[in-house]
Fold:
Amino acid sequence: MSDGQAVNPEAGGQQAQGFPHQGPTPASPFPGQPQQSGYGFPQQGGYGYPPPQDGYGYPPLASPAEPDWYALAEEAESSSRRRKRMFMIGGGVLTLVAVAGIVGATLFLTRDKGEASADPTVAASADASPSASESVPAPTTPLEVISNSKTDKAPVNVGTLFPSPTITMGDRTYTKVTTEVDEECKDVSLANGLSESLKALGCYNVYRATYTTANGQEVTVGVITFASDSRATKAKGTPKGNINPLVKDAVTPFCQGGVKCATNKSSIGRYAFFSIAGPADGKAMADKDKNAPQAAKDLIESVYQTLLDRGRTGLAKVAG
Structure:
């Protein structure tokens, strides 16, 4: 409540000096207009300065030395929101990268598995048949039948490659003693670096048989299967290595320890084949020995004829 003096209620102002008291100041006839001090002047604070604009309906004025706490709080909250948003974005990117890596690895592993299943390499003692979904031109000759694994559909095993218990070539007879299949061209069946060369060409399996002769010779012949005739031809042309002699069952050790023996090799279609022959007593072949070289040659010729007959049989099935 006013006592009629010009006093600043918040700052403890004093009555204005030098002016006589004129009684109560009349109310302003206009609403919202400030009351006038005596002598037609607006109310003034002590000593001619305006009063602070707080209290009695005026908002408080912030001290110049005090920080704007509301603005600082707003800025801190905004920074916190930005940090959270960047963290969420970064986490999302890392999640996407992880998912992409998992999907890529899955696709990579799936692709490798699929390609491996398409490889016609066989387990046990037979080459796998080509997929029914694969199509190639129909063969027109026996050689074309056996030149590609997709057209050469008959079973491949020691029974089909070495079908007869004896082989007669002229006046020479060879008796089959033992057979064996070595999957994936293992070193046990291939000697002197031949395994590495044939594996590089995509060798499937090695099928071996050992025969004996009446004149004291033993001979092993090995047939190696490939996907195509071009690979088999390259295998035949390898400059070093040969088949290892198959020694088991009733076969006495022969051509062991690097002793001199006779060798031979050839190919037809997708098959390459090698032979090695020497004395059944394990000794080295004599310089003038003609029996061992003849045995190695005869077994190569026998396998060649067996595979050519295989092509004829396959062509007859296609024509029929």
